[in-house]
Task: structure prediction
Amino acid sequence: MFLNINFIKIIASTIFALLAFAANSVLCRLALGDNAIDASSFTIIRLLSGIIILVILLQVTRKSNDIKPKAKGSWLAAGMLFIYAIAFSFGYISLDTGTGALILFGAVQLTMIMASVISGNKLHFTEWLGLIIAFLGFVYLIVPSLVTPSFKGFMLMAVSGIAWGLYTLVGRTSKNPLSDTAYNFMRTSPFILILIIFGLNDAHITPMGIFLAVLSGAIASGIGYFVWYIALRGLSVTQAAVVQLFVPVIAAAGGIVFTNELITLRLVESSALVLGGILTVILGRYYFVQLAEKKPPIS
Result:
């Protein structure tokens, strides 16, 4: 039996988006860790690059977009996008990669799961089990490198995670992912202008810093977030929250490639836990729950 085309599209979109999320972490750490650029300038260039690439994509696909539902994003999504981006950059100034990732994606997961429960969606036992397994794998990967975070850094990264969780929740209703993402980015323009005004005196920019920020904004953010909105069409709130726990695993692999770190048994073990937990959540929703609902009553 051939796999459903929409299912393949959702899987491919999810994988691409997760790779983009991990790339953002690596690019941000490379830029700020090497003092190639300051946090405000990185955020500004990142968002402006996202706007430019998305406007170009809108123009290139204008004819196909004309037959899709009209969509221009929302100020709520744009606000969450900007808060996520600025808090993400400043949070990493005082946090190492592992600690920042744990706080960020822990906040994302909790925000989305709590939103799902508050809206009346009950989690199946298998979903809770998968959630716990994936989170334990995440913690198992990060714990050896954890340091006591500064209160400021902790709060900034937690706010970033909450904002990204809310941005993701808003995106689940998108009928035209490209248009919504493009307008969400464009709506951050007033916030970018304010950031330019207040961050001008402390600006520190190098060619490498600009290059890393553009890569983060145009590819990992602009295109990555557009593809993420496509993926969200086929993911439940719980699934969208849990699959993002895979991002730190990808980021850790990126660290091995770009910082010459060694592949450790702990990385392999934690990856297996995270992937196993994600698979359990997906199977729990699509198979166990659905089969239980279709099972005929006992006569």
